[in-house]
Amino acid sequence: MAMGYLLGGMACILYFLGVGILGGIKKSPGVLKLVKMKLGKSMSDEKAAKICLIFGSIIGAVGVFLFILGALKG
């Protein structure tokens, strides 16, 4: 049962690295293009980067929580 928490934590951390770091901090054009395509084409790059950073941080915190929960259950 603890393995599921750890795998979920790893998936959340990978999401954080992909969206939070690449989209929010490094402002990768590919990630920002995907965000703008999903949320609204008239959005600026800066606003899309902030959204990436916010959602990446939230999911990263969930990933750390799942790692801790998995370690306590295991």
Provide a descriptive summary of the structure in words.
It is elongated and about 45 Å long. The chain is built from 3 helices and no strands. The longest helix is centred in the last third of the chain and has 29 residues, at about 45-74. Helix 1 (about 1-25) runs antiparallel to helix 3 (about 45-74). It is mainly alpha-helical. Helices cover about 85% and strands about 0% of the residues. It starts with a helix and ends with a helix. The mean pLDDT is about 90.
* Helicity level: over 70%
Which regions contain 5 or more consecutive residues with pLDDT less than 50? none
Structural class: mainly alpha
Distance between the termini: 8 Å
Q: Any descriptors?
A:
74 residues, mainly alpha, 3 helices, elongated
SSE inventory with pairings:
Elements: H1 2-25, H2 29-39, H3 45-73
Helix pairs in contact: 1-2, 1-3, 2-3
Brief rundown of the structure:
By secondary structure, the chain is mainly alpha-helical.
